[in-house]
Structure formats: structure tokens, C-alpha cells
Amino acid sequence: MLSGQPPPLARALTEIERHVADSGWDQPARLYALAPTDELVTLEPALADQLGIDADAPPADGLTPVEQELPEESLEEVLATIAWPDTVVGCALALERIVLPPGAEGGMPDDAVAAAQWAASHPDRSEVRIVVGVMRDGARSSVLRVRGHDEDADLVRDPELAPELAEALASTFAA
What is the distance between the alpha carbons of residues 139 and 146, in angstroms, rounded to a whole number? Predict the structure, then answer.
């Protein structure tokens, strides 16, 4: 890895966030398998070509995100059923959420549907896109973008932005 350059997982999550951002906001959750770029070029040259990866010079430590189709089930149900092949060394999930300021949840209705509507119309809400990734070896990373803050410098990077989500993704690698 080049000095000063973020680790491969962090780079892959930033790439995913940019890719999702190209489609704008109000996107459904998107799941990605992460494969070592150099292995992908060797094992799947046609896919590498389709993804625009330079077969002659793949980054030695790069990860290539490959989007997976998500069924219409709840995210919790889907993640509980995933098992990755050995060629997948990590996975990432991009999703959008509404975040409320501390203390705002005191007036939230108990019913889940009513609570979602209440949060969506709350005057102090923020809309965020979070991309969380985990590796088979336990490494974790995440990036978060607040709607309206569109520069790459505005990305918040922290491996513990969504620990429960990272744990759910890590469980997809459990034996």
C-alpha cells in the first residue's frame, strides 16, 4: 500500500458511495461482494473487462465491488441467509437513513410505520447515506454522507459508524 493512501476497504467504500451517489438520493439498499481485483482479473477476465479493470495493471491490494441483487425481503432476513464463496473477501452495504438529533425520539410514535412517517417529516432530521463494509479477517470500515454535502471532503469516515450493521455483515462470513 502506498504511504498516505487509505486501506483497500476504505477505498472500496468510497468508490461504492460515489457510484450510488451517481444515481442520486432516495435509492434502495445496495449490497456488494468485495473481491481482490488481481484475483478477479485472473479468474474472471470477461467480468474484469466489463467492469473496466485494466488487466495489465490491476492494483495489487485493490478490492472490486460487485453489486448483488437484493430480494424484496427485509434486510435482516436477507443478511441472515447470505453465505459468500471463498473468492469473496469482504462485503459492503449502502443504504440511506433518517437521523434525528439527540432527544428528538421522545415524541416518536410506538408504531413502526407511524414512527417512520414521523421521522421523515421531523423538521430537524438529516438524511444520510452510509456505506458499511467488513472483511473476512474482521477489518471494518464505513463512510457516511449527509444529504446536501456533496464534496468528497464532506464524507465522514469511521469504522464504528454503524456497529450493528457491521456485525450483521460480518455474520455473513460465519461458518
Answer: 24
